[in-house]
Amino acid sequence: SDPFDENGNITIIGGSTTAIGELEELAFTVYPNPTSDYVNLSFDTEHSISTISIYDNSGRMVREIAPSSYSQSTIRIDVFDLPTGVYHLAVLDDSKSVHTARFVVTR
């Protein structure tokens, strides 16, 4: 099935084992996608985020963000200076779990 909704947004649900029998889920939406100026990460629930890294399609880190508030439900990231292409977000939460999503920058 297509992970994108009718507006081109994608909802990612990532899970990571934090203890035996315990699964922590981090669900977030990346929008607008595609974008030319910024992306929003909108979290379904408040989570403590350590860092957000952006990688280009070759795997090179192009940006690393440490959110000023560790429990924001929406984080806006400016991407107006990134060239056209496919990018990957890696969200590291305080439990050291990594959750990923993809977005496209167009001009």
Kindly summarize this structure in a few lines.
This protein is an all-beta fold and 107 residues long. 0% of the residues lie in helices and 57% in strands.
Q: Top keywords for this entry?
A:
8 strands; 107 residues; 4-stranded antiparallel beta sheet; globular; mainly beta
Strand count, sense and closure of the main sheet?
Answer: 4 strands, antiparallel
Q: Please provide the count of β strands.
A: 8
Helix content: under 10%
Rg estimate, integer Å: 14 Å
Shape: globular
Residues in β-strands, percent: over 45%
Oligomer: single chain
Overall mean pLDDT: 79
Number of helices: 0
Order of helices and strands: EEEEEEEE
The order of strands across the largest sheet is: 1-2-3-6
Query: Distance between termini?
Result: 28 Å
Unreliable runs, pLDDT <50, ≥5 residues?
14-23
